[in-house]
């Protein structure tokens, strides 16, 4: 089978990632159950569509996402794909809660529990466990995962441990994945990071990352992977539902109105809002990929369609002129 070539961009010149990355949180039964077959079909559809970058984490379904992703990619030549996972939450056996359901949004039994750990030993143990669950001998990119309340330990122990593993050739790139831009910017200033996964802070609705992280990343040659491009769903549909969510909570009336204005301008240029949401962050020269959550083969198809749909420059000009979303190509 000939796999189509989806455009790629590079992290530090040696880790190529496709412009659309496969976000595997939903393979961990995020919010609802997904079957093994659905998960495998989604991953295989992504490969058939030319996606080579796959992102997961122990947090997603208490290891279920990593296991499913590993099984689905088992027959894929390892050199053809890039896998990223995350550290900071160790999974520890919890027989006392095995009859309960996970309380952090994943429909899985709570037979293990998450323990925050950004120590050097915790980082190494987490990577070893992820290698086992993924069924692979190496991980390309490792991100600190949501170290918001653990900045001191992450800076003092976790990042140096990851940088040491990079120097040994165990991993290829070191990064941080967060829903804020200020702390990753401080990490870049303190350590030689390769990449930041920025969730929800470089979108049509929220450009917070432009104030601190993005200028610094551009100066230091640090790649940025955009996640949360739909801002928890508010930008994922052409019509804005009154019960839509923004940043994991019900959207305010002000944010709903802003999203409807964005959608209206997109329609005036014959563009659907989700396509503009996917392509917006990729216009910044520091951004190498937009990681999009995909549960099914249909999600893969729609994600590729949204990345490849033609968007006239006039749309970006108008969004900038209206003060809704600055043109990311200006001054960069």
TrEMBL record:
InterPro entries: AKR, NAD(P)_OxRdtase_dom_sf, NADP_OxRdtase_dom. Residues 20-320 form the NADP-dependent oxidoreductase domain. This is Aldo/keto reductase.
């Amino acid at each position: 089978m000939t796999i189509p070539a989806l455009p790629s961009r590079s992290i530090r010149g040696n880790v190529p990632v496709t412009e659309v990355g496969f976000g595997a949180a939903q393979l961990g039964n995020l919010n609802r159950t997904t079957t093994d077959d659905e998960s495998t079909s989604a991953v295989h559809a992504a490969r058939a569509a030319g996606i080579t970058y796959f992102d997961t984490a122990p947090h997603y379904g208490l290891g279920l996402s990593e296991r499913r992703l590993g099984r689905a990619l088992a027959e894929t030549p390892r050199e053809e794909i890039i896998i990223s996972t995350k550290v900071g939450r160790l999974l520890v056996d919890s027989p006392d809660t095995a009859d309960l359901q996970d309380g952090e949004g994943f429909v899985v039994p709570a037979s293990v529990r998450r323990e925050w750990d950004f120590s050097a030993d915790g980082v190494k143990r987490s990577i070893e466990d992820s290698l086992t669950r993924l069924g692979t001998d190496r991980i390309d990119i490792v991100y600190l995962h949501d170290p918001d309340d653990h900045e001191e330990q992450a800076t003092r122990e976790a990042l140096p441990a990851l940088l040491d593993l990079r120097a040994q050739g165990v991993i290829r790139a070191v990064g941080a994945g967060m829903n804020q831009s200020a702390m990753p910017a401080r990490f870049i200033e303190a350590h030689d990071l390769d990449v930041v996964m920025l969730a929800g802070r470089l979108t049509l609705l929220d450009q917070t990352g432009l104030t601190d992280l993005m200028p610094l990343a551009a100066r230091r040659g640090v790649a940025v992977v955009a996640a949360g491009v739909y801002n928890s769903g508010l930008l994922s549909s052409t019509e804005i539902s009154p019960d839509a969510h923004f940043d994991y909570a019900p959207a305010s009336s002000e944010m709903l109105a802003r999203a409807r204005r964005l959608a209206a301008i997109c329609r005036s240029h014959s563009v659907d809002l989700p396509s503009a949401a996917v392509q917006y962050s990729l216009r910044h020269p520091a951004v190498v990929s937009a990681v999009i959550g995909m549960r099914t083969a249909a999600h893969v198809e729609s994600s590729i369609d949204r990345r490849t749909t033609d968007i006239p420059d006039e749309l970006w000009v108008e969004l900038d002129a209206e003060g809704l979303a600055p043109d990311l190509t200006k001054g960069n």
